[in-house]
Amino acid sequence: MELDTNETSFIKITSPNQFEITTDYMIQDKGKNKIEYTIGIYLFIPKNLGINAATYTQERFYSDRISYVRLWAPERDFTTIASEFMALILRLDTRLDVGKKPGSLSGELKMLITSYTRALRETTDAILVAETIETDAITRLLETARKMEDVEKALLALREKTTRDKSLFLFEAGSEYLSLTTQHFLFKLNLRLRREGETYRELINAVLGQINRELRFCKENTFPIISNDDDTNEHVIYRYSVFKKFFFRVLYLQQERKEDGARIKEFYYAIAAGISMIFTTIVVFISQKEYGNFTLSFFMALVISYMFKDRLKEAYRAYFDKKLHLKTYDYKEKIYNRSQRKKILAFIKERMRFVKKSDLEAAVVETRLQGVPNRLSTWYLGEAILKYEKHIRLYNKHLQEYHHNAISGLHNIMRFDLSPFLHKMDSRKVPLYRVNRERLFGDKVYHVNVVVAFVSEQETFHRKARIILTKKGIKRIELPETGVTLYPDNVAGDVEQWFPVKKSGLLKTFSV
User: Fold this and answer.
1) Residue 32 pLDDT greater than 80, yes or no
2) What is the rounded distance in angstroms from the CA atom of residue 319 to the CA atom of residue 272?
3) Dihedrals φ, ψ of 464, to 5°?
4) Across 336-345, 369-378, 407-416, which has the greatest mean pLDDT?
5) Where on the phi/psi map is residue 505: left (φ > 0), alpha (ψ -120 to 50), or beta?
6) Of 39, 49, 47, 35, nearest in space to 426 by CA
7) Long-range CB contacts (< 8 A, 24+ apart) of 210-213?
8) What is the pLDDT of residues 434-489, one digit of tens each?
9) Whole-number Å distance between alpha carbons of 506 and 260
10) What is the largest CA-CA distance in the chain?
11) C-alpha angle 280/286/287, rounded to 5°?
12) CB atoms < 10 A from the CB of 219, how many?
């Protein structure tokens, strides 16, 4: 498989001050033992923001950056996923009948839930971006959702066979999370179909009918549902977030992180100390021979030699630091499964540097200049260029053995906080004057351009995003390649596209 380089999904806004870049390191053919990937993320920062090597240290960058590595959820087809759930629930039922704990079956259940979530997401995303409505795909999704109703009920029924708190939470959380996840993606389809008006009335009502069945299921089992009450909605969102973390935790891997080049750095520091001692020893021998022992001149020479010894040692340490800084990475990470630490799944090295424009590859420069009209860019006025680089070595064989070849690769989520970039910005609102009495205002914005270079053994891809910042944070992200614009509030449609709610809390059917 190749490196996943989707032109629109590689970046997204996660909060007013944060954006996220995701990269996928995919398993390839069985003949390969190791696979190499390199990811380069370049931030082109206007110099008037005051972000440079002197003001924005590596320590600050790494504190503003969060990185997670997890497995891809196993891929499963909609036609078999419900039957696999029922088969697993039957095995759980058998274990509980003889008084045993769920054991490893709880991990299988979590993995299956992540697979269902992945299938829902990929199917829904494909429908949302398609130019025409894929009615067959929506029909298959609805058929699977109806079958999953039986799965949700069967999971809840397992509560009667155990009194263990962890098992009870597993079954209740699994049932509620499956229902909430189905609702979440059906709401997205609902909004997409609504834009087509009366054309797909029957399909819209079929989606609404399935949403209402999920809502009834939640109400019958005293699970909170979405309503006009903000407190209740807050509760629903919180529970959904907790359940998602609980189930997807099965995919997250252990990360053992260390500073790169620590041993070789100590070796060079020892050389620096040795050079300074050689200098001091030579001065001592010469002055002793010239002035003799226990003389004032010998004493002064000894003091001066020790003064220069420390300066000489620090000078050589700075020299070696500069050389090592160019050749070594900042950190290295071993990625492995918690239960099998001997089998490393991946090895990652990362570093952050401010680089010069002349150090950039031609492809990076070309990508940076995409969508720049009439040279209206801080590129020509001066930018600080921050380069964050990751080198990934994927242990192909170990990953293929993991979960019986059900895993297709690793998913790396990197989140960057831009709060330090906002400190020296001007006020957001700038007054604009017209001839009449009315006064207008506009936003004072700054452009931070991001270029991401994806390099695999087969191909190299470059993607660009333009982050539009104001004093309050990220206003939008523009993707010049596709013309897509991302906003902090990822609203699927206008308020008018939402359906009215009955007193019972269910959605009303669509009518024109």
Assistant:
1) no
2) 9
3) -125, 145
4) 407-416
5) left
6) 49
7) 210/142, 210/145, 210/146, 210/182, 210/186, 211/183, 211/186, 211/187, 211/507, 212/506, 212/507, 213/146, 213/149
8) 556 666 777 888 999 999 999 888 788 899 999 999 999 999 999 988 888 888 86
9) 57
10) 109
11) 85
12) 14
Tell me the two tokens of residue 10: 């590689």
354 pLDDT above the threshold of 60: yes
Amino acid (one-letter) located at 246: F
Contact (Cβ atoms closer than 8 angstroms) between residue 395 and residue 345: yes
Token pair recorded at residue 248: 């997807």
Structure-token pair, residue 355? 């680089």
**CA distance between the termini of the chain:** 47
Collapsed DSSP state (helix, strand, coil) of residue 462: strand
In eight-state DSSP terms, residue 493 is S
The strand pairing partners of 235, in sequence order, are none
Q: Residue 361: which residues within 8 A CB-CB, separation 6 or more?
A: 453
Asked if 381 and 24 touch (Cβ cutoff 8 Å), the reply is no
366, 290 Cβ separation under 8 angstroms: no
**Can you tell me the distance from the alpha carbon of 267 to that of 54, in angstroms, rounded to the nearest whole number?**
27
Amino acid (one-letter) located at 226? I
**Measured CA distances, 366 to 370, 382, 389 (Å):** 7, 16, 19
pLDDT digits (tens, 9 = 90+) for 322-351: 655 556 778 888 888 766 666 788 889 998
DSSP string, 402-454: GGGGT--EEEEEEEEE-GGGGTTPPPSEEEEE-SSS-EEEEE--EEEEEEEEE
Query: What is the three-state SS of 367-383?
Result: HHCCCCHHHCCCCCCCE
Please name which of 109, 22, 29 lies closest in space to residue 72, comparing C-alpha atoms. 22
* pLDDT value at 206 more than 70: yes
Distance CA 23, CA 452 (A): 10
User: What three-state secondary structure class fits 69?
Assistant: strand
What pTM was computed for the model? Answer: 0.80
Question: What is the Cα Rg of the chain in Å?
Answer: 30
DSSP class of residue 163 equals -
Under 8 Å between Cβ of 452 and 39: yes
- The C-alpha atoms of residue 370 and residue 366 are separated, in whole angstroms, by 7
H or E segment and range at residue 350? strand 340-355
Is residue 95 within 8 A of residue 105, CB to CB? The reply is yes
Contact call for residues 111 and 407 (beta carbons, < 8 A): no
Residue 148, both tokens: 């999953």
* DSSP letter assigned to residue 360: S
Q: Residue by residue, what is the 3-state secondary structure of 249-316?
A: HHHECEEEEEECCHHHHHHHHHHHHHHHHHHHHHHHHHHHHHHCCCCHHHHHHHHHHHHHHHHHHHHH
Q: How many other C-beta atoms can be found within 10 angstroms of the C-beta atom of residue 177?
A: 22
Residues 6+ apart with CB under 8 A from 142: 206, 207, 210
